[in-house]
Structure formats: C-alpha cells, structure tokens
Amino acid sequence: MTEKYILAIDSGTTSSRAIVFNHSGRIVGSHQLEHEQIFPKAGWVEHDPIEIWTRTVQVITGALNAASVTKDDIEAIGITNQRETTIVWDKTTGKPVYNAIVWQDTRTQAIVDELGGGDQNKYASRVGLPLATYFCGPKVKWILENVEGTRAAAEEGKLLMGTVDSWLIWNLTGGVDGGVHVTDVTNASRTMLMDVKTLAWDPSIAADMTIPLSMLPAIKSSSEVYGLAKEPVVEGLPIAGDLGDQQAATFGQACFDIGMAKNTYGTGCFMLMNTGTEPVFSKNGLLTTLCYKIGDAPAVYALEGSIAVTGSLIQWLRDNLKIIETSPDVEALAASVDDNGGAYFVPAFSGLFAPYWRGDARGAIVGLTRYVNRGHIARAALEATAYQTREVLDAMEADSGAKLAGLKVDGGMTANNTLMQFQADQVGVPVILPVVAETTALGAAYAAGIAVGFWNGEQDVIDNWAEDKRWVPASDPAESARQYRNWKKAVTKTFDWVDADVPTE
Questions:
Q1: What does the DSSP assignment read for 381-414?
Q2: Contact 209, 216 (CB under 8 A)
Q3: Average pLDDT, whole number, for the chain?
Q4: What's residue 327's pLDDT?
Q5: Is the pLDDT of residue 449 over 80?
Q6: Three-class SS of residue 505?
Q7: Whole-angstrom Cα distance, residue 411 to residue 302?
Q8: Does residue 21 contact residue 6 with C-beta atoms inside 8 Å?
C-alpha cells in the first residue's frame, strides 16, 4: 500500500510555508516564501492578500515537489494562520477591498477608545478579550469607515471578512465559484465578535462595531471537512483542519491536559495554557481564548499571554539598524559580551500586549552609558523575549494557581541557544524543545488528519511527541531576580508615550 501524508499550510506573519507530514508526524518535504511587510505610516502594518494567496499556491507546489509526492498521496489539508490579521473582500469579484490589516497594526486606537468609553473590559465577560487594536472587529470597522464604497457594499451583502484562514479556504474551495466562507472557533475567538461560551457571533457587539452579520464566516470546529479543494494543484482534497497558529502549536505540542503550556517564539511570543472545557477569565491581563475543538467534542479553552514583538525585534536590528546581516547572527553578537551592560530594550513597537495592554506605550532602550556597544544592544534584544515570557508566565501561575513544572517551546527562536538558556534561568523551570519544532504546521496537520481518520485522535499526537533538547536553570536566582526587577522598571518608561501631540487618523 502506498504511504499517505497530510499537507499543512502555515500562513504566518512574515512568510507562507507548506509542509508534508507522514503518519509519525515527521516532515518529509517543505517549502517557504516570505511576503512583503507594508508600513504605510507609523504604527500601520499591512499585507497584500493576493500575494499571500499566490505564495500559498507556490509553497504547496514546492512542498509536494520536495517530498516527491503528488496530490494523490495526500489524505487531507490542514491550515494554520497568523490570527487577528483581517481581510475584507468582494465575494462577487474575489478582490480585497483593502490590504490585510495585520495584528500588529495600531491605527484603530481611536476606534477602540470610542467603543470602550473608558472601559477597556467592556466586552471581556463575553469575548474573553480586552478592547485593543490587536483584534479584528475594530479593523473591519476602520475599513468600512475609511475605504470608499465599502460601507454601502457591506450593507448590500457583497463583502466578506475573515482572518487569513477564511481567505485561504474560500480561495482553495473555488473563490467566486462557490468558495466556502468559514472559520474555526480558535480564529473566531480573536475577532472580539464571538461569545466564547456559546461559540456564536454576538449580534450586539457586531452592531456596536457597525459590522453587518452577513460579512461574517460560519464558525466551525477545528477538525472537520469544510469543503473540497478546487485549486488545481490540490484539486479534490478535503480541507479538514483549521487552527490559529498559536492554538495549532499548542495542539502539536500535545498540551491536552489542564495546566499544560507551551510558548511559541516567532514574530511575537505566545504562551497558551490549557484550562479545560470551561473558560477561565483572567485577573492578570491574560486572554481567554479557544484552544481547540475536535469535531463534535466539547470545546477546550486556554489562557493566553500574547507578546507583540520578539522575533520581529531581531528583524528590526537586521533591517532597520543593520547591525547584523542575518537574523541568526544576533546570537554571536550577543555572545561577544558577558551581559547586557546595564541596557534594557522594551520593544513596545505596537504598544504593550499581555499583561499590560497599553496602546500608549512605545519602544525604548534604557540604562544606556558610553560603555554600551552593539553587542549589549543585541543581548538586550534577546533578553527582552525572555523577560516578557516570564511576565506572562507569572500571570498564568497567578490566574491558574498552579506552578508550571516545565515550559514546552517551539518556533524559530528556539534555535538560539543563548536565548533558551537565559529563558530557563528567568522562568526557573526546564525549557523543553520537541524533535519536530514546526509544531504550528504539525498541529494543523493533526487536526486535518484526525478529521479524516488518518490519526485516531489526541493519543496519536501524544505518542508521536518526542523531546529533542532541554535547558535547565543554571544562573544565580538572586541575579536573575535583579535583572527581572530592572526589566520591570524599564517597562514603566514606555508608558504614556502616545499623547495628544500624536496625530490620529
């Protein structure tokens, strides 16, 4: 019998990737392409949805070629995506009405302030989220208010909205020719429009944001057949898995028991802790989110700590300051000094996410003296990721009442040994890396494979998971505490930066 595989599409913030996985959850072929980061104004971040779709088809073809397989060898397709990034398109032409507004974008601050009326937690008891520029609803409202003709078209039922998963599934299943307009519970829970208890759109919040319900996709589970692909390279294959990228990584890391947590080191950092089949509402600045829902089984929830800028800070050092040529060079530069030289880098480029939720914050490097050189800046940039992760972990332990025994990690920055060791020193527990570090794509593959019977369920995921490496705390706890105390002081220096002198759009 010919071996069969699952194809995962991982549509991230900076790139699109497709990976072919075998039954053991190992990679047999992959392909990745970056897409353009568009910065029209300070605080604005956009992507071209057509480029994302084009790149998706290209990486699918590349991955199948790399694995030496054809679509006939694939059992199903799973999709995972950058969340909150919002696309509005015309269902009759298939054309986006505006660029995708990326999750990091802060242009909607005035809308957020107006919606809240001074209460950042106005909708939190229903949607599990604070009012913030991070989420989708205000982005859709901005498009309808600022792009000519969109309000009338939306009211006439001509426009659709969605996160990137919805855009890809709609195009894969035919687009204007019968494309399926769906999302899953994990992505829907990032819009500020879904009630996390009922798993249905909240009409009153949509009305507050002046978003017609006709624009919204149908909410499905994370693991079921949504439709069959019509795109020629994968024509006829069932699209059967859909998870936001951080939930997909949690699934791929086999975090199926209450209290299990993982941290993904990518463009930003995102720590999720499984809280079981009842939502837990945070008192410490975390998000209540859907973790996953497999078919007809009860939905599983998570607490999440979202950090906006981690890996993208290293890209900033590379592209804007040009103190490194490639992102991996940051480790050698950071290792050229013994410590941070007293410098702390708080990368509040998009404000501060968890646990602060301060849209008025902006990035700062503090503690500078003439002693500080580019090595210290590189080290401070790496350390910022570890400090921010510790802040989120502290909040999780306070909310859950449980002490984490170990932190499962994944994502590109786990290749940085200096960072991972410093992370272990800061959190005070082992940091554990699996054999397959591409757990985001793997989680989407598992969701699709379970839907079509390729895998039998969560136990197969647990059986496939294997540890590759771990870093154990090795520093003096008193020194780690001193560094963290200085970090907390540095964070306060970023507050209240966006003021009345900053023009609003």
A1: HHHHHHHHHHHHHHHHHHHH----S-EEEESGGG
A2: no
A3: 93
A4: 87
A5: yes
A6: coil
A7: 19
A8: yes
Phi and psi at 151, nearest 5°, equal -60, -50
Residues for the chain: how many in total?
Answer: 505
What are the start-end ranges of the H helices in 182-299? Answer: 185-188, 203-208, 245-252
Distances in whole angstroms, Cα of residue 44 to Cα of each of 101, 106, 498: 8, 6, 14
Confirm if 254 and 458 have CB atoms less than 8 A apart: yes
Among 7, 33, 41, which Cα is nearest to 21's? 7
pLDDT at 501 over 70: no
- Give the pTM: 0.85
pLDDT per position as a tens digit, 281-329:
988 889 999 999 999 999 999 999 988 888 889 999 999 999 999 888 9
The 3-state DSSP class for residue 308 equals coil
Residue 309: predicted pLDDT? 85
- As a whole number of Å, the end-to-end CA separation of the chain is 61
DSSP symbols for 5-74: EEEEEEE-SSEEEEEEE-TTS-EEEEEEEE---B-SSTT--EE-HHHHHHHHHHHHHHHHHHTT--GGGE
- Partners of 162 in beta bridges: 87
Would you tell me how many other CB atoms lie within 10 Å of the CB of residue 204? 10
Q: Which two tokens stand for residue 93?
A: 């032409």
The pLDDT of residue 228 = 97
Q: Tell me what pLDDT residue 502 has.
A: 52
Among 467, 462, 392, residue whose Cα is nearest residue 432: 467
SS3 label, residue 167: helix
Amino acid residing at 47: H
Is the separation of the CB atoms in 449 and 455 below 8 Å? Answer: yes
DSSP 320: I
Residue 73 Rama label (left phi>0; alpha psi -120 to 50; beta): alpha
For 225, residues 6+ apart whose C-beta sits below 8 A from its C-beta are 76, 238, 239, 240, 451, 452
Q: Tens digits of per-residue pLDDT, 109-149?
A: 999 999 988 888 899 999 999 898 989 999 999 999 999 99
pLDDT in tens, 351-372: 888 889 888 899 999 999 999 9
| Residue 498 Cα distances to 312, 357, 388, 491, 495, angstroms | 21, 14, 21, 15, 8
